[in-house]
Amino acid sequence: MDLMRNRMSLTRATAVAAGALLTLGLAACSGAGDSQERSSSDAGTAAEEQPTEEALAEESPQEEAPAEEGADGDVCAAFDSLTSASSALSSADPADLQPTLDKLEELTTTLEGVSEPPAEIADDWGTLTTSFRSVTDGLSEAAEDPTATDAMTKVNDAMSTMTGQEFQDAVQGVGTYAGTHC
């Protein structure tokens, strides 16, 4: 009975992770529209405040542009992985969780691979990365031994993190950023 209950908990935990990914995708979609609305309402003010091309050339050396584009590129590529992984995670087979765990590990490694996310989302990115690592490690341990109480406790704790306000705020922040920059 405990084995069956733990398998159901693992499936539920995977579903929560998939739900978090879907929320992230929706946040990106809604964030793009919000940014466009703000851009059009601020257009008059922005046109008056835009520096000339000469001023931009003097203020920002050409060497810095690729680094920022690289950071955006890393985040955008990782964000694409997040959104594409949502379908794989949402169709988890309770009888064979290994493919889902492999996909979750790949996704978590991709998130961790973004060494320097843009400053405006660095804290949010850290929250996502830490949360996904906790879920991935907890699910992997629980899948190895579904009867281990401590492994299931880790899974439940990780799932609580993903449904918490800090995680939801991070999802919204990263999603909005991705909707604007990716």
Task: Describe it.
The protein has helices spanning 2-41, 43-49, 53-59, 64-90, 98-112, 122-144, 149-163, 165-181. With 182 residues, it is mainly α. It starts with a helix and ends with a helix. Mean pLDDT is 71; it is low at 25-69. It has one domain (2-32, 72-181). 83% of the residues lie in helices and 0% in strands. The longest helix is centred in the N-terminal third of the chain and has 40 residues, at 2-41.
Instruction: Indicate the low-confidence ranges by residue numbers.
Output: 25-69
Biggest sheet architecture: none
* Outline type: globular
Structural class: mainly alpha
- Tell me the helix content: over 70%
Tally of discrete structural domains: 1
N-to-C SSE series?
Answer: HHHHHHHH
* Rg result: 20 Å
Number of helices: 8
Number of DSSP-assigned strands: 0
The mean pLDDT is: 71
Strand content: under 5%
Distance between the termini: 46 Å
Blueprint (SSEs and pairs):
Layout: H1 2-41, H2 43-49, H3 53-59, H4 64-90, H5 98-112, H6 122-144, H7 149-163, H8 165-181
Helix pairs in contact: 1-4, 1-6, 1-7, 1-8, 4-5, 5-6, 6-7, 6-8
Keywords: Signal
Biased composition (Acidic residues): 50-72
Region (Disordered): 30-78
Name the descriptors.
mainly alpha, signal, 182 residues, 0% strand
